[in-house]
Amino acid sequence: MEGSKHRTQISLEDWQYQMLRDLSRKTHKSLSAIIRDLVVEKFTKTPSDRRSDSLYGIVGLATGDGASVA
Fold first, then answer.
1. pLDDT of residue 48
2. 35 CB contacts (<8 Å, ≥6 apart)?
3. Closest CA to 24 of 37, 7, 43, 6
4. What torsion, rounded to 10 degrees, do the Cα atoms 41, 15, 18, 10 define?
5. What distance in Å separates the CA atoms of residue 59 and residue 30, rounded to the nearest whole number?
6. What is the pLDDT of residue 37?
7. Structure-model confidence comparison of residues 45 and 15, the more confident one
8. Tens digit of pLDDT for each residue in 25-68?
9. Cα dist from 39 to 43, 44, 57, whole Å
10. In the prediction, which pLDDT does 15 show?
11. How far apart are CA 49 and CA 2, in angstroms?
């Protein structure tokens, strides 16, 4: 399902660039393809996938209606 693509420019920290470049060499994929894959992975999680999210474990720990206590 390949649609039109939009060119964009991002700035990465040195360590981020190095990790992506290393992954690019190992997988023989372009940096752009890797970043597109990561965006898809991040934004297409299903509710069951979110359960593996490290923050999901705190959901429901608190009680109350959310009103501030002054």
1. 64
2. 10, 20
3. 37
4. 60
5. 37
6. 93
7. 15
8. 999 999 999 999 999 988 887 666 656 677 777 777 777 777 77
9. 6, 8, 23
10. 94
11. 24
Torsion of CA 38, 5, 27, 40, to 10 degrees: 20
Q: Are 20 and 27 in contact (CB under 8 A)?
A: no
pLDDT at residue number 44? 85
Angle at 53 between CA 50 and CA 54, to 5 degrees: 155
CB 24 within 8 A of CB 34: yes
Cα–Cα dist 10/31, whole Å: 12
Residue that is written with structure tokens 């002054």 in the block: 70
Q: How far apart are CA 35 and CA 30, in angstroms?
A: 9
